[in-house]
Amino acid sequence: MKVMKTLYKLAIVSVLFCAISCSDKLTEANIDPNVVDPATGNPNMIMPTVLATAATDYLLKGWNEPAGIVQHIQHDSWNSGINHYDWTPQDWTNYYGMLRNNNYLLTSPNAYPFHEGVALTMKAFIFGMITDLWGDAPYTDALKGDEGLFEPVFDTQETIYRGILADLQAASDIFATGDNSGYLAGYDVYYGGDPAKWQRFANSLILRYAMRISEKLPDVAKAEIERVAASGIYIKTPADDAVITYVGTQTSNAWPIEAPWTGDSPFSNFRRRKPGQKLIDQLLSTQDPRLAVWWSPVQVQWVADPTLGRYMDDAIYRNDERLSVVTLPDAEFEQAIAAGNKFTRRFNPNLKGANDPELNTDLYVGLPAGLVSPDSYNGNPDAGQDKPNQHVSLMSHLYRNHSDPELMKSRIISSAEVSFILAEAALKGWSVNGSAESHYLDGIRNSLITWKQEGAYADFVTREGVAFNSATALQQIITQKWIASWTGAVEAWMDFRRTGWPDLKPGPASAQPVLPVRFIYGSAEQLANSANIAEAIKRLEQNQYSNQPNSQWSKPWIIQGTGKPW
Q: Signal peptide position in this chain (predicted)?
């Protein structure tokens, strides 16, 4: 569903929820007017806060550390966390904060079955993020501070994933009744109060988490996936993806890092994020139509010139006219390129010295993973923190100028992801109403529709590396799912962790020669719940790359004994 609303209303709703009671009137002088009384509050008013906060967090996670792991992006400055995985402990306070808000939907005496179904779905999704990213976590004893339980036991991942599947099934059963009584129009920023679409969402999350546990609990995973597939009730088209849309009229409702092109300062975050070369190589190898949607060509392309008297020219060319400068300000480049000018810079490959950099002459150029000095990559003449690099691609104007609001979304789960899950299930021999190839092709089609490239589908799926090949089917499925998870990198990380695909390697500046598999438990939890977190850390599998027990390279239960991803 296209939701072109959300964040203006969300800000107002959040204030209202915190500032007023939904009672008709206040009759007692000692009632705090700034706190909602759970006995009388309207659960609709917390719903958009829960939904939008969860969706925005998912987008931000898919745009930060996980995106660096799966090499969707790299940073050319302030890069250690994204490029090198030099992580510090990360607290999960915001997730449990979301769960506390969500718990009001679940336990409010004024909630209707629809609210309960929404709350169960979001509870499953948020706990899914916690256990996916960290491992074992407080679950059964969580959210019981009002009962005096301030040091909750950490449940095992197995317990949490089983609980997630149970909650999602309970939610699906509620939505199956079609009852949305008690819902106030405008407060469901995902699906507008439509129980049928919520049931498809809940069932699609069942598919996600069932596949997540498929190596550890294959019988459970098979039964869950076959049951949902047999029902036919899951997200099948991009129109039913679980999304919120960013309207982009000001900072508070804009897509992260988006800013108007008013000069250099607002674009520091925009310039810092560059495509990972691994992603660019994949997109170029198949002439993927999504390439130009997500990324811009380099501002200045390298061109070989054997007549040049040095390895790299100290000037750039505009339409083959040599200028007296080696670079221009970003704004000047953009204005000239928009007017149809082409900029190049020349080099003589025959004069390359031992210390001279290799140059990438492609029109689209990314940053290889984990470089020591990513800001100087590809002969950047103006290297330095927060400086542009004319020889490496930037994100497209979609993200620079909010040129297409329909594409500016946080996508929690998509029809493309669901199709690729069913393709993998079919490859395992499970009954999912279709072959691995048919679901694989549906996944590609749905992703192309999402990014308005459906017209390229017929030709694209015949290309080498894209056309279905039973001998390399799992690699193809996960690779195309990795591409389709752009801006949703958490899922790509979980797939890599589970399957080892795509074949991702850390770069030379990484602290370890393998990629991380989890977040480090946060300092706040270690201080406040030390005994229980110590037991959870003992259950992590240590290995030659674990530089400490609570390490990003210590394996959680979900991949222990699988030999994956390394």
A: 1-24
